[in-house]
Amino acid sequence: MEPPVEPRVRRLFGGSARTLGDLAADPFRADRDRIVGSPFFARLGGVTQVISPVGSGLLVHNRLTHSLKVAQVARAIAERLIADEDRRALLDSLGGCDPDVVEAAALAHDLGHPPFGHLGERVLDRLARQRLGLPDGFEGNAQSYRIVTSTEIRGAATTGLDLTAAVRAAMLKYPWTRLDHPDPHPRLMDPPPRGASAPPDDPESGSSKFGAYRTEIDDLRQAREPFAGRIPDWQQTVEASVMDTADDIAYAIHDVEDFYRVGVLQQGAVSAELTAWQREAGQFRAITDRALGTAARRPGAAIERLRRQLHRKDAWVADDDAFAAAVEHVRAELAEGLLAVPFDGSIEAEQYVARFSARWSTRFVEAVTVTAHPSVRSGHVLLAPAQWHEVQVLKFVHHRFVLARPDLALHQRGQARLLGTLVEALWEWLLDPEEESRLPRRLHDLVELAEAELHPRTPDRIGRARGRAIIDFVAQLTDGQAVALLDALSGRSGALWTDAFVL
Questions:
Q1: Domain limits of the chain?
Q2: pTM to 2 decimal places
Q3: φ and ψ at residue 155, rounded to 5 degrees
Q4: Which homologous superfamily is 7-238 in?
Q5: Which carries the bigger pLDDT value, residue 420 or residue 1?
Q6: Per-residue pLDDT tens for 3-31?
Q7: Distance between CA atoms of 465 and 393, rounded to whole angstroms?
Q8: Exposed, middle or buried, 158 (CB in 10 Å: 0-12/13-18/19+)?
């Protein structure tokens, strides 16, 4: 009988091509270095976080700066958790919590994010499924996993970044495919895990969020194998849970910070919403859902809808007293604190923003804990209820006073049209038999890779391979490259040789 495999070795390999000699070379740090050295990571500097800064001169977060800050928060959480002996024993029983693994996964979690933020993700998913016939569609998390396992080429004999099993597993915020893994699929659970449910308007399409395409299912299984018997198939690893929590924290804080700098977040509007709800909370709670829907413009109504939504979706943690305390804390710190003085670009203003961000980051990191038996809607690592509610209220401010703006909607509709036109133009180019020898080399390689991944008896195998290649190709562009490529394909650009940089 062969001796049992030591857990650390299993976390290292699980499908990786590395050898035992790698054990002495800090393999998890090597993973981090490979991710940072990837051109896909550098590309994130030109990809939208919420709004595209291209041509505007705005100093706002992009996907690169966001990833760096998520990594910073994630490492701080991991180091704090393992510093406690009792918590460390629980973490080890669940599969471990290594700060280097957490940091590497955080750096890699957005590698597959397409141009134009979450809008680009939604548009590419619709085009992939409805126009190109790809059942898996497009999902940013699954695209990140595809990059580190398939499309990022490091050498003649290596596909992907050859990351350890632990880091690949830690990237799986949603450790299931869209439709069929694991079996039974988590979208069929009652309630389903966060992200696993299907869109209400398209229940047959599978999970809204998922961590890997069907083409990477074997790799997903290998990455997760070391955790078998420790956590359910549908549950995040502890390290993925840390990364996910850090992503939530960074998103809640830094997007608010961005729109304060830009001048979009106005004290009057934010303060009116929060204060009205505090003043009339009892009245709002007595209103029916239908009546509340007709009072959409009434100050306080939107945040009352948030309170009800939290009870519907997250009854395991939603608490009215904690919600009221979170509203008050955000009102005092944000509406009556940060937003009380308009940002003027001065050193003093920047220092004020930095102190605000640091204060909230510390508050959240220190509120992170670990549990052996989490809710289906949570991971093993989670925020304390008070801070969980504060994150929800901060996110609400961002959604209500930024994402719901008509001027942003106008901008995004143009970006959506651009992506649709670009995909259509590339499809026509691929189908032109006279142009086969002049296709962009990268696009040609992606078609060959996608074709090799599909079973020979796959229906319309060539068509699906071409569709996946186009989606992979567009998803790897920066915002600026997407605009420049469409200009070139549309004949609007006269810069012949400089347009080649996107090919």
A1: 7-238, 266-404, 411-501
A2: 0.91
A3: -175, 175
A4: Hypothetical protein af1432 (1.10.3210.10)
A5: 420
A6: 444 555 556 655 455 544 554 568 999 99
A7: 43
A8: exposed
